[in-house]
Structures are given as structure tokens and as C-alpha cells.
Write a structure and sequence with these properties.
The protein has 274 residues and is an alpha+beta fold. The protein has helices at residues 7-22, 46-62, 71-76, 99-104, 177-186, 199-207, 221-233, 261-270, and strands spanning 34-36, 43-45, 67-70, 90-97, 110-117, 120-128, 133-138, 143-146, 152-154, 167-170, 192-194, 213-216, 237-239, 255-258. α1 (7-22) runs antiparallel to α2 and α6 (199-207) packs parallel to α7 (221-233).
């Protein structure tokens, strides 16, 4: 790839951050180690901040000159996000995706990073600290589950099924109340709709063929760039609600991913139209 980032080194850096800063704090957070950001379901912990500091401090050795866009860095300096669309090279990091789960002691969280070159996502990594493995995609090279022993397994989304048989993930929290009522009623048309409150694991299991769709309303780049590329490279069809391609500069417009275009169209028409 021409993005000049050592993907293996980046993957190892995510693992290092988890081993040194995240896992020692799991189920071991003190009373002052968890804070609310925008609302009670939007948390930050000492683990998030320490892991991001470690990754940020090392990133220049892996991606010299890259703009660093971390969730906690942007929380402290919102204008940083504006640099993403025009950057020649950027590394986007979510130090703990699934912070609510992490803070609650639930073993369902991950570390995510994506590489953006000239407005395009060219690589994505989702590391599972507890499973100690990575799902990695580079544009045009497929999606791979990579284990610490060096073995790799190519991942592929499942085949499409009729709407009434679909099992998927739907994050409805950011709809307006009236729209949320409509969408949650429409979700009765599918077999199962759930949310793990952790996009990292939702993208992993979708790319591995265990879900038929995913839907997100709020599009922060650290939550969705890596996962969308991983899903697409595993064969998924992904687009915003208006049918346009999802790009790093987008922070709204919704995002729907499905096993194929036919499934995407059925979900958009029958479930996610308000």
C-alpha cells in the first residue's frame, strides 16, 4: 500500500496499549477513574486516556508526519477533527470502544485504529484485548482475523436472507424521540435486532458472518472508519441513509451496512425510513 504506515507495527501498538494501560484497569477502576462526558451513557475512564496517550506518543515512529485523531484528543480539542478531511495521512484511534461496558466490568470492548490517506480510509484494525487477536483490513486486500501465533483466517460476511430472517445490530439512541419510536417499531420486521454498545465487536462479528446488518446514526470517525472498511473488504455493502458512500469527513447522515445491496435496500425501505 502507498500510505507508508507499518500496519503490523500499528496493530502491535494497540496491543501494547491494552496490555499496559487497559487490562490492568479492567474491573479495577477507582471511584474517580470514571467520568461522564456529554451524558450518563457517554463515559471516559482513566483507561481510555492513558491508552490514547501511549498510542499518541508512539505513533510518529509508525506513521511519520501523520495527523493523530484520537477520541479523547478531540474531546479536549474539537477543532482537531477538522484536519481529517484534508490530511495527506491521518491515524484515527478509539482507545477503548465500548467504554460503558469497560466501566461496568463487561468483557465487551475493543481498541480501534484506521489509516486515512487523502480523505480515504485505506486500512483498519480492531483489536480485542481479551481475545488477544486482531481483525485487519487494507483496501483491496480483504479482511483477516490475525492471531498472536501468526495464523490468519480470511473473513467474509454471510449471505443475504429475507428481511424476516435477519439478525443484526441497530444503534437507535441518537434518533429523535418520534423517529426512534418508528424505527424501533419497524425493527419488529427482522428476526432479532440488538446492540452490544460496542461497535468494535459488532463490526468484528458482522465481518465474520454472524450478523446480517448493522445500523448507526451518529458517525464519529473513530467509531466507524475501521469497521466500515473491514466490513466492505469482507464483502458487505455499506452506505449512508441517502445511498451515498461513507467517507472520513462524514459525521452525520446515518450508516447502514448489510450482507448485499438487495438486503441494504430492503432494510432501508422497510425499517430505517422515517
Amino acid at each position: 500500500m502507498s500510505h507508508s504506515v507499518d500496519i503490523a507495527a500499528l496493530a502491535n501498538l494497540l496491543q501494547e496499549a491494552a496490555v499496559k494501560e487497559i487490562l490492568p484497569r479492567f474491573r479495577n477502576l477507582g471511584s474517580g477513574d470514571v467520568r461522564m462526558k456529554s451524558e450518563a451513557i457517554d463515559l471516559v475512564t482513566e483507561g481510555d486516556e492513558a491508552a490514547e496517550r501511549l498510542i499518541k506518543a508512539r505513533i510518529d515512529t509508525i506513521a511519520p508526519g501523520a495527523v493523530f485523531i484520537g477520541e479523547e484528543s478531540v474531546a479536549a480539542e474539537p477543532a482537531l477533527l477538522d484536519k481529517l478531511a484534508d490530511a495527506d495521512l491521518a491515524i484515527v484511534v478509539d482507545p477503548i470502544d465500548g467504554t460503558f461496558n469497560f466501566a461496568a466490568g463487561l468483557p465487551l470492548f475493543g481498541v480501534m485504529a484506521s489509516v486515512v490517506a487523502k480523505g480515504e480510509t485505506v486500512a483498519g484494525i480492531i483489536y480485542d484485548p481479551l481475545g488477544n487477536d486482531w481483525v485487519i483490513a487494507e483496501r483491496g486486500a480483504g479482511t483477516w482475523l490475525c492471531r498472536p501465533d501468526g495464523s490468519q483466517e480470511k473473513l467474509a460476511v454471510t449471505a443475504g436472507v429475507p428481511l424476516e430472517a435477519m439478525v443484526g445490530g441497530a444503534s437507535t439512541a441518537f434518533y429523535k424521540e418520534d423517529d426512534r419510536r418508528i424505527v424501533m417499531g419497524n425493527l419488529a420486521k427482522v428476526r432479532i435486532a440488538t446492540s452490544y454498545r460496542c461497535a468494535a465487536h459488532e463490526y468484528r462479528i458482522f465481518a465474520g458472518g454472524h450478523l446480517h446488518f448493522l445500523m448507526y446514526q451518529k458517525l464519529m470517525p473513530w467509531d466507524h472508519l475501521a469497521g466500515t472498511l473491514i466490513a466492505e473488504e469482507a464483502g458487505a455493502y455499506a452506505a449512508r441513509f441517502d445511498g451515498s458512500r461513507y467517507l472520513p469527513a462524514h459525521t452525520n447522515g446515518g450508516l447502514l451496512l448489510a450482507a448485499d445491496k438487495e438486503s441494504w435496500d430492503a432494510l432501508r425501505r422497510e425499517v430505517f425510513t422515517v
